[in-house]
Write a structure and sequence with these properties.
The complex is a heterodimer. Chain A is of the alpha+beta class. Chain A has helices spanning about 15-25, 25-40; strands at about 50, 55-60, 65-75, 80, 85-90, 95, 105-110, 115-120, 130-140, 145-155, 155. Chain A folds into two domains: about 1-40, no CATH class; about 45-155, Sandwich (Immunoglobulin-like). A six-stranded mixed β-sheet of chain A has the order 6-5-8-2-1-11, with no helix packed on it. In chain A, strands 3, 4, 7, 9 and 10 form a five-stranded antiparallel β-sheet that branches. In chain B, strand 27 and strand 28 form a beta hairpin. In chain B, helix 14 (about 605-620) packs antiparallel against helix 15. Chain B is globular, with a radius of gyration of 27 Å. The N and C termini of chain B lie far apart (about 60 Å). Residues about 235-240 of chain B have low confidence and may be disordered. Classes of the chains: A alpha+beta, B alpha+beta.
Chain lengths: ~160, ~750
Amino acid sequence: MTARSFRLDLALLREGIEVGWEFGAHSLVELARVAEYIEREVYTAGSLVGGPGGLKFRLGNPPLRLGAFHRLVVSVDGVIVPPRSATVSVGGGAPRALDSVSRSEPVELLPGRGAAFTVRPETPVPVGALTTVRLELHNVAIPPRVWLEIRDRVRPEPTP
Amino acid sequence: MNPSPSEDPFDPVIWRSPAPDPKRPILLAGLSAFAQMAADGELSWRRESRGAVFDWGGVYAEGVRLTGPWTVHLSLGGRARPLGESLVSLVVRRSRVESVHHLGEVDVLQQLVLPPEGRGLARRFELFNRSDRTQVVELTSTLEPFLSPVLVEGIRPSSFRVQEERGALRARAVGSSFRFAADLLPSGVWLDEAPWRGESREGALSKVVHRYSLELPARDHRALAWLLTGGRDRRAELRLDLPLGDGTDPARWAAQAAAEWAAWTSGTPVLSLPDAPEVERGYALARGALRMLYYAPEPGFRALQAGFPWYAAVWGRDLAWMLPAVLWMNDSGWAVDSLRTMFGFQAPERIPILGAEVGEMPMQVSPGPILLYGTSDTTLYYPERLLRVLAHGGGSAEMLRSLEPHLRRVRQWIDAKSVPESGLLLHGGEVEGIREATAGIARVACGIDAPDTTIWDSVDRRDHAIDVQVLGWQAERALARLHELLGQPEEARVAHEHAERLAAALRAGYRWPEERYLFDSLSRSGNPLRHVRPNALLAVSSGLFPEPLAREAFQRATEEDLSTPWGVRTLSSRDPEFRPLAYHSGPVWPIATSWAAQAAFAVGEPERALEYLALMARAYAEEGGLANECYRGDAPEPWNSCCLLGFSVAPFLTNLFEGLFGLRPDLTNGRLSVRPNFPRGWSSARLQNVRLGAGTLHLGWTPEELSLTWTGDVPLLLEHAGGERSIAPNSRVRISQSRT
């Protein structure tokens, strides 16, 4: 069995006309549906917000792989955010700094269990900026790195 | 009250639990659906996977996980108790599961069966009141809707649409749906905490609760049946409304399922190993486990699933490892259909977004179809598997002709991977290709950085892994023979030359004298990767290397850094990169254990082969007729492991036929090679009902004599250790072992 359960770039599947040509329209519909499903259910659309506490974004589900992760790395516009300057809160639990994550105390990401991230890049990102956030996850049981890239405009953080 | 105590030799009890064991997996599987449960009678099974514990229990159909855990609570005038806590007996057969529960003076019999026509699970309860007064039992079903494609690991929809449909509850999400029906009206239904009276509703939903109040007169009984069916929504509408009215259907379905299992089992070969009863029992368990993986989710789509629960899709590589065993189970028709299914998804051109090169066979196919490519080796298996089917007497000349264009595409795929200077096959970078094809276009993108995609695809074995080269050699040899059969001598000559070149490159470049082993891989510049992995055993058993070297390499693999009492590791524990919990960098994989057994037979060490096979057989028995995908590298405990993987049973079966009994049919030439490899000290062995083409072979062995009975309508030329002799149609031959 392979380590890669699913490894597709997402929106491009919609462009897979040749797939429909070769394997039937049903295949195209199903592939596009799966692509949309992942896109919709992993990153919570519009959740990238900025405010005094830094950038925040939410995931509704783990990206492509569930399980325990011993290392999480976040970068913003290509610059890695120091792990002490980023936190993750899983399933509404208390935020954990990414530098506290380890093999003995991994972060568990499971289906349907959301995760909220807060990151404080050394160079603040203004509200309204089109920003790329990249999250890299290292699983304790399967080595290859899992990654997620979100390109979205930073919205203002709602006032409580 | 005992559930079905009678024993059926063709659908026997494979597991019995006298007490709840919620950690032990129990599976029910049909051709398009399966149910994952635990040995406490619940459809809930919490299992470590990818390092975290998650509940994989529930009902799956057509490549869709319909539900998450589906649990039951029973209440008799007080606190509701989980069904699992009250279990006093669980009996598992391949066709059905039955459990008995005690609730005060009420006995509860639960029966679970997969409906033969529907895609889902029937769950029936029969409650017996042993007391002299009327009792009221509250029975509560709680299920978590899931409705997500199995291959999309780790994602559950955030929104579900629920509606009433002719007295049943229908839930929809992501192009799939399930329907929950019962033969009694519930006293109440709740969606999460809100009462539901049949109105349409859309939104987040974590549980669906149905509650039933059953009044049981003194010394009387009542029954309640549920039917949960579903799958991809496009077809689901046509098929889901199975009858469920009088509460008797599940019993009828159970009888039908038992009859189907019995019919299949009675058509398979019968193996008798008086000197290794454990292995004989392992044969029966592995055979049943393999059959659970047979898959026919829609017309024209027949193959085998890779495993349960999270690899419940057709994986091209895994299927290739299963097909030889399918043939030995007398199912050449299923093997032919599987080949047609997979060649139907061979990429006729480059499809970069799916990682496909011209001629590539798919890594994974699910109903839809949903398909993906991008492995280093899957394509290489298929010429040999096609030839094997023909050699077994399956398929036909017409089938071969119809697949000829596909063989040409395989040729293209191989040629594109071949390095002209060395003749070796290059691999790696398949995933990067997908990334490059899709970079910068998506708003949300995700991926896994697997640099290489051999069978151990979580590790980097670039550029020329030994097993990929052996597969390439086998593919070329098969192509040569297939083109001969097609009357294409030039294509055959080219394939033969490629095979010779690969063989020479393997012999010249992979010897590792210091380790008395073979290198795991070479870089493109020729530098070896010095890792002791079991993959080199495939080269040992291929016969590519001279016997002293092959024997020495096998001996090296038996050392305790690679071979453990619970199987063979994916990497030597002496290797600096050994990690006992890292998927392919140290854990024990049963498929690697079967490679060791195969290599042992190849170098003439059947005693060692039987040791490996016996430990696999013991695992099947301990695991209740299932077979883990892998175990920790430092302890005999499953880790990040599906509870059943075809990899873990099919090569075991193939080893019994091809290694132990030494059978190699080539009906394209009218030949059968029989070179048994029984350990010293064995007294006898027997194999009956092996179907080869239109005939059937029965084989008996003692140290003195080999006897074969052949019922075919054409003669066979037997090749045995002492020479050759013909066996006429419908005749028997005896070959003295002393003369051989």
